[in-house]
Every structure is written in C-alpha cells, then in structure tokens.
Amino acid sequence: MNSDTRQKAASSAPTGVVAQLLNYAALMRLNRPIGVWLLLWPTLWALWLAGKGHPDSGVFLVFMLGVIVMRSAGCVLNDFADRNIDPYVERTRKRPIASGAVAPAEALTLFVALALIAIGLAAMLNPLAQMLAAGAAGLTILYPFIKRFVSIPQFVLGAAFGWAVPMAFAAQTGEAPQLAWLVFGTALIWAVIYDTFYAMVDREDDHKIGVKSTAILFGDADLFVIGGLQLLMLVALVFIGDMADLGSWYYGSVGVAAMLMGYHQWLARDRQPSSCFAAFLHNHYVGMVIFIGIVLHYTFLTAAP
C-alpha cells in the first residue's frame, strides 16, 4: 500500500465521536440484526393472533420499538457481564468492551439509557401489560448472569425472548389468555433450539472457561435433543392453530417450518462451528414463515365473502 492509499484510508476511517457512536452501535448489536428478528417474530405472532389479524397501530409501534430497545439493552448488559470472559473466546474477543473500545462504565450508562426508553414505552401500555413488562425487565437482567450457575441458561433466554407474547396479548386485549401462554411456551422452546445451535459454536471455549450451556449439557446427544425439541415445537404450533381456529394457510406454514428444521439438522450434522452458526442464523426463517401463515390466514379470512 503506497502513502497516498494509506492517507486516503486513514481519512475515510471514522474518528472521535462518530467512531465511539459506532462502537456503541456494535455493543447494541445494531450491526447484527439476527437477534432483533428472533425476538420480533414471536411478538408479531402474538400481535396478529391477539388482534385477529388487525393489531392496534399504536400497540404495534410500541412493540416494534420495544423489540429493538430491549434486545439492544440485553446485548449491552450481556457484554458487561461477560467483560472478563469474552477476551478468551475467539468469536467474542473483538466485542467493544472486550477489546477496550467501550469502557464498562460507558456500557452501564448506555444500558440505563435504554432501560429508561423501555420504561417510557411500557408506560404507553395498559396496567396488565405494564405489570408483565416488569417481568420482562427481570428476565433481561437475569439472563447474562445465570449462565455461570445453571446448565440451562437457554431456557431463561427463551423466557426473556418469549415474554413479549403475553405482553402483546395483554396490550391488545387487556388479558393474557391460555393461547398467549401456549404461544409463549412455543417461543421458549424455539429459543432453546436456536440458542443451542449458537452455543455449539462456542462449546469448546465455554467448557474451558466454565460457562454453562445446553450445548455442553446435551453433549453428544445435542442434535437428537434438538430434534426432539423441534418436534415438540411443531406439535405446539399445531395446538396453536387449533386453539386460534387457523386454517390451511397457517398449517402450510407449519409444514414449511418442519422442512426448515430438517435443513438445520442437516446443516449442523458435522457439528462444525461454522455449520452450527449457519443453522442458528437460518432459524429466523422458521419464525418468518409462521408469521406469513398467520397473516395469510387472516388476510383471506377477511377477504372471504
């Protein structure tokens, strides 16, 4: 590289305030939207089911913003909690706190700011939804620390990611019926599935540094257990369709989801980190096709004479 090229590269690199804002964005994982999608899809299932295809526009906006804010807050707190672990894991050693780009005190300040925004959004909802929001906050705070003490932190993550479901029903209808908790349980199972794929990427590093996960707990039976959870999720999705009186468009989407799950098993068959990570990333299409099925059901039901 000649001197002119180096000068151009240096001048184009972000500096000062802009560079630090980019570090904060990376800390919130705004450059990696997969977590937003995985949190968003069950929320959308719930909003459309609770609103029978026509969710309230104000509630919809609050939850869309809430998904981004809560996921960002969870990522910031997670990296703060893992600040002494991430430098020793290949996949995470370049994260902003681990690399020194963001100080722990800055991360806590950012977390508080995001939490205040989340509180403001929750204040726009009805009392039951606000009460459930307190549970969501507790799960968000608990998850980053629980993986040091229990072997199934993915279940806590699943509860945190799925908690928007009863909240959405409460905000939309003023109650959290049995259907809401069935959808919540389905979202929880799904989170254990995809986050176990994710944990399989770091299994060797996590085992060395003492971080617990379902990938370590399941051991050589990991894909078999994931397969059982995938089957359980499909059964739960069928129960959702029956309870919500959904039709063929929805059940078709469940069939597509089943094929996607088979593909994820095939992707991770050799248990290579890159393959497991690909299976994790591709899981968001499961949530997407289920949402499409729900939307198509209510669209054509509404359009029917």
Structural summary, described in words:
- The structure is a single chain.
- The chain is built from 16 helices and no strands.
- It is an all-alpha fold.
- It has one domain: Tetracycline Repressor, domain 2.
- The radius of gyration is 20 Å and the shape is globular.
Low-confidence stretches: 5-12
Distance between the termini: 69 Å
Taking all Cα atoms into account, the compactness measure Rg is 20 Å
How does the overall form come out from the CA principal axes?
A: globular
Largest β sheet strand count, sense and barrel closure: none
Q: Structural class of the secondary structure composition?
A: mainly alpha
Structure summary, number of beta strands:
0
- CATH architecture name: Orthogonal Bundle
Quote the CATH topology: Tetracycline Repressor, domain 2
What is the chain-wise order of helices and strands? HHHHHHHHHHHHHHHH
The CATH homologous superfamily: UbiA prenyltransferase
CATH class term: Mainly Alpha
**Number of helical segments with 4 or more residues:** 16
Average pLDDT reading: 91
**Beta-strand residue percentage:** under 5%
**Percent helix range:** over 70%
**The number of domains:** 1
